[in-house]
Amino acid sequence: MLKGSLVTLHVMLSVTGEALFALASCAGLMYLIQDSLLKRKKAGSLIRLFPSLNDLDRINNLCLSWGFPLLTLGVLAGSLWARIVWGSHWQWDSKQVWTLLAWFLYAFLLHQRLVMGWRGRKAARWSLMVFTVLVTLLIFGKLFLQTVHNFV
Fold first, then answer.
1. pTM for the full predicted model
2. CB 89, CB 82: distance < 8 Å
3. pLDDT digit string (tens) for 56-79?
4. How many CB atoms are closer than 10 A to CB 13?
5. DSSP characters for 16-72?
6. With the C-alpha atoms ordered 125, 126, 128, 133, is the resulting torsion angle positive or negative?
7. Which residues have C-beta within 8 Å of that of residue 73, sequence separation ≥ 6?
């Protein structure tokens, strides 16, 4: 059941997209820390280790811009595989539901960045918040909800 190129493609694309979201949230966190230090005029030697605020914002945007389509393609590959294996694209599986929720949150964030011009602190906060939601859903779902995604 777990054999085939669609499974491999689904996992590779989804994990890569989520890894890029993790990097985006790290850039967001670094942005917020550095911005706070600068505002409080407490920027010491630690701040020299961080990239500039502009670079952190660009890293956040780049990771979101690549992570979202990769996750989308991963979800589509998983949906095609589910159709082949279970006869339906959608199972109302807890992992499918929370992935869809995270997908919508990332779609909103990316829309706000690209269309509404969110930059800086607001984009960094949202990136960190949405990734926290994604991780919380993954942990909560793994511990408390049944899923057909228990392959390990």
1. 0.87
2. yes
3. 999 999 999 999 999 999 999 988
4. 20
5. HHHHHHHHHHHHHHHHHHHHHHHHTT---GGGGGSPPHHHHHHHHHHHHHHHHHHHH
6. positive
7. 9, 13, 17
